[in-house]
Batch of 4 targets.
Target 1
Amino acid sequence: MSGNRRTRWNDSNDGWDSRSNSRSDYKKKSGCKIGVSKNGRQYITGWNVSKERGYITFIANRANDIEYSSRGGKIWHRYVVNISIKRTMEKRVVSGLFDIDSKKLIIKELGMVANPKGGRGGYFGTFNK
């Protein structure tokens, strides 16, 4: 071997394909970002593509200025989450909880979490608890 990183078999040249480690062929499946609107209110947007649910988008806005605290000492904000599911053409409005410390929005009704600080542009996907 000449020192190339070889990872998968390529039938076109009857050998190992050394290009498969590039990040250019990686297809992103979700994204999430956090922002501030013109009137100074924080919002979160995100999207997810999966075989099971199809293409899902959401935008979440803070419901009120009340801070909620859990027994463990975490501080949460309540968000109103507008969800659009393209496969079924369904639009839903659900409630979500935003953890101030970790900057994660949990949408329990869907079993999904939105993390704007996730790698490569955020994460919006399922969580296990």
Note: The chain has a mean pLDDT of 82.
Target 2
Amino acid sequence: MKNIRLIALVFNAALAVITQSGGGQNVAWAEQNQMLFKVSKTEFTATGDVKLPFLELKASVRNDGSEQTDCNYGISFSTKPFTPLFPVTVKAGLLSAGGSLSRLNSPELSKSISAFGSTSVRLKELEASLPSESSFTKPPSVFVQAAAGTKKLNFGVSSFYDGETVTADATFKLEPFKALEISANLTGGFFPYKQNSRNTWFNEQGFYHQGGHICANGEFFVKIGGFSSVFTLGLYESPQGKYEKTYRSENIIKFTNFSFHFNSFYNRFDAIITSSGKTLSPLLQLEAGGQYKYKTQGKNPATVTTGFNSQLQINLNSDEHNAVAAGGFKVNGRFLSGSLTANADIGLKQQMDGIKVDFEGAGLKGALGFSIKDFRTQVSASASVTPAEKKESFYFSEKLGITFNYTNFVELSSSNTLSLSQKKEKKYSFSSSLSAKAQFRFCSLRVRLEFQV
């Protein structure tokens, strides 16, 4: 089996070389078959990572065949091994911030829903991670976090600075026993915004120059048995000096293998400017759904999940609204996995004689995967349909993915994806990546080559 996997990896590497440097013969062969293979992207990435109990160093370089080479770096130091009750963490480099800052940037619910919604809700704290091998555009930044207490009672503060803005965060957690957990978080900072367009003189916000404003949100989390709830209050200063609020609620109830969630978001203000500079229109979102999980018995048990999710989006300054729904089931087993999901998009227009319902579109997607040890293959197909008056009334796509892994001191892996789509004309794309990772006691080195046709 190892020899077979090794042969597959060698074949994949040869395919990459042939595709990129096949010369005139390959081009002539492609033209004869009415298909010209042209490499649209070639990328080489190398990542080094050193991990110690109290220190981590990480750096990556990337080259796409041009004269310019991108690089990123990051360092993390923690006193947790020495002061477990009062840990302090310091990170620096091209960091990626998230957690409660992401919620502050986009307080609304995601308009893209899945048939299998989240089965848990948690309080979000200010976070920052060292750069990944695909992150090269972040500015240099510093993150500091300090905490005190135990698992049952904990208090922490943190701050993130990226050369332009400072974000601060404070978190309190109380867990007197397993069935009860209470926590609260406050995140805020001073963020810039750009000048708006001059054609907005007669809008509620009016014209304003670039400047800065205060943005903050407070989160409250409670968990009692199988019930979990997070309430978020957002506060955003307008260019006119007024403070405008948003409200968000996420709730989940679990009963053994069944879970039900209900989420909502409300904003009544026109053109709220968030900490990322995006604007929010008056909006009410209501989302509800549930899923059921069942585990089969036998020598090779599998988990069967069925789910349904729906969301209603009411635009408070417009007569046009939207409703989306998704449902499906999936199976995850030792060797086989599969899923089938469907979604529908409905337009709602408020008129004098009632509400007009318009069909906006629907989709169906199926996937089937097979895996054995270090080999995995997956096939998926999707179809979507829209009304005849739309530009695209029917769309169909297929995807085939094959992944190999080979481990013998050095971990080798290869991922290959062939995609086909049919709209007005057929389109093909192929992407392949080959990576090697050497793991030592305190450090690792990973190189990766990727190309797309």
Note: The mean pLDDT is 85.
Target 3
Amino acid sequence: MMSDLILFSFILLFLLLMTNTKIQFVKARTLAKKISATVIEYRLEKGPLRNDYTKLDYPYLKLDLPNTEDKEVKLHYANSLKKPFKIGEKIDVFWLENKLVYWNAYDNGFSKFLPKTWAFWRSEDNN
């Protein structure tokens, strides 16, 4: 009984933290300028907060902006299981705290089911 309560508490805490992260991301995204970019290559690099030898495929992009012809920019969006984009694919990104992030990062997978606001019981038409 006690172990079930602990498990439930951890799951609830995890969901609250994930929801808060998504809400902060969505707020930052609404204030940001959407930039179109093209995936040009992947590079294997050590991921953040790793103390092992695991490397992740990070996409490098060419921004579709004037005066950025030869500049390659790392997208802070990696997956250890697969490459999320095809080479040559156009995606939307934005700058967040000096990092280039994927516009739709929280609109797929498990995260798409989390609310975008703490007032999730209201309809989006009333916001």
Note: Strands lie at 35-46, 55-63, 73-74, 90-96, 99-102.
Target 4
Amino acid sequence: MSDSERPIFSGGISVPVVAGANGGFKLATGDDYITQLIEVNSADADSDNPFQIVGIGQGAVFQNVSDQAWKGLKKREMAEIFRDLKRANLATLQSIRFTDGEVAGDFEMQVTYLSLETNTRRDVNTTLRRG
């Protein structure tokens, strides 16, 4: 499927999943939706469930977040998300920065974007944990 054929959504089910006012799923839109996309993409998929099916390759399990190639992968994933958001006239990516986290081996990823709905610059910070 080419980029032009991929569906674009301006919102989605909020995470964590909760009931909305009308009994359906609560939906996330606007900056809440964009923040959610960034945070979910940055998650390490860790849980106490040893049988959890993560849907990622072994590289994500054995990769070190201090590795420049891994940071490059995260930047490419964010760029892909923001290509779709730009096509939907929701947001454009401004920058991605990595800094040392509070815990040794962790990194903070700061994603800066321009919300096209509100014409405001927004920063989203998320922690990337060492695998």
Note: The chain is about 30% helix and 25% strand.
